[in-house]
């Protein structure tokens, strides 16, 4: 019942076209066959994004302890392509999980990716130094190996709760028929 309700939301059903930190074009289809934990944020975020990326990284490490579980790919999509080019993402994301892959693109590409997940994004006013913050939805999305949105996790969920939920989805997963 929960999966039917989530599918009715049509979250994450569209494709995205972005670039990773090595400059390779990436689409949602590139991650089919793997579970994905996906977070939208920005590298200049003073507190929320680093906290959420640390939580995501801890959840992935907890799941990696069980070699019987299927592969899980952590992804970070910037909501601030003006400042978050490939080099900025590579530099900032190396402090988290070693397999955390950063994705960026043109403002239009990033807006389209955020829209596919109904992620709210709004850049705030610039200060005297030209700096600004970006207000955005704070959710981590779980996609199954078929690329279907399975769940999302807000700030109140701990890494242990996220890992437990992901494991439950993995345990109950049945692939889509061909």
TrEMBL record:
InterPro entries per record: SCO1/SenC, Thioredoxin-like_sf, Thioredoxin_domain
Disulfide bonds: 45-49
SUPFAM superfamilies, alphabetized: Thioredoxin-like
Keyword Metal-binding on entry: yes
Pfam families per record: SCO1-SenC
The family this protein is said to belong to: Belongs to the SCO1/2 family.
Listed name of the protein: SCO2 protein
Lineage summary: Eukaryota, Metazoa, Chordata, Craniata, Vertebrata
Gene: Sco2
């Amino acid at each position: 019942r929960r999966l039917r309700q989530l599918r009715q939301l049509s979250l994450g059903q569209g494709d995205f076209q972005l670039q990773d930190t090595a400059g390779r074009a990436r689409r949602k289809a590139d991650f089919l066959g793997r579970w994905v934990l996906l977070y939208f944020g920005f590298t200049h975020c003073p507190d929320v994004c680093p906290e959420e990326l640390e939580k995501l990284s801890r959840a992935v490490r907890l799941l990696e302890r069980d070699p019987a579980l299927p592969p899980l790919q952590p992804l970070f999509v910037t909501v601030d392509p003006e400042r978050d080019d490939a080099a900025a993402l590579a530099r900032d994301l190396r402090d988290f999980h070693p397999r955390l892959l950063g994705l960026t693109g043109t403002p239009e590409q990033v807006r389209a990716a955020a829209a596919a997940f109904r992620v709210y994004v709004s850049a705030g006013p610039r200060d005297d130094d030209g700096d600004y913050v970006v207000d955005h939805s704070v959710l981590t999305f779980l996609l199954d190996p078929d690329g279907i949105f399975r769940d999302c996790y807000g700030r109140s969920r701990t890494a242990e709760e996220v890992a437990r939920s992901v494991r439950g989805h993995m345990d109950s997963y049945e692939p889509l028929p061909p």
